[in-house]
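User: I need a structural model of Biotin carboxyl carrier protein of acetyl-CoA carboxylase from Pikeienuella piscinae for a docking pre-check later this week. Nothing fancy, just the predicted structure tokens so I can convert them on my end. Input:
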Amino acid sequence: MAKQQDADVAFIEALARLLRKHDLSEIEVAREEGEDRDLKVRLSRQPTAPAAPALAANPPPAAAPAASTPAPAAPKPTPEDPAQHPGAVTSPMVGTVYLAAEPGAPNFVKIGDRVSEGQTLLIVEAMKTMNQIPAPRAGVVKRIMVEDGQAVEFGAPLVIIE
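Assistant: Understood. Predicted structure tokens for Biotin carboxyl carrier protein of acetyl-CoA carboxylase:
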């Protein structure tokens, strides 16, 4: 039994190395090793945020601008992170997105559609399982952030509903 546990630990450590090496946010594996033994492993991690710059203890005093010097332009606003939008529907798993039930079928939703809570927005295929992604609330589809057949990571924004 200890031999099997050592093998399982080595397998999980190898998965963790793959997670870091390929900068993945999640890995999930299920393997069957006979009638009495299955192994399911799910590793996930938070993406590392860049460190905030340290503030100087005593910043130099700002010089007053000369009268002839024009004021600097306001900094351009950074684009909003769609995953932080209050109406964002994010992927609950790593997988492949499908906008329709099958090739050639109409998409579940399109921009401008009014959706009800629980209505299927799209499908995320993970480990050969089709997972319907429901609307968490009623509203209007404002943006579709993914394309049919696109690979997505856990937490990736899929649709914006307002």
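Before docking, keep this in mind: Strands lie at 26-32, 38-44, 88-90, 95-98, 114-115, 120-126, 129-134, 139-144, 151-152, 157-161.
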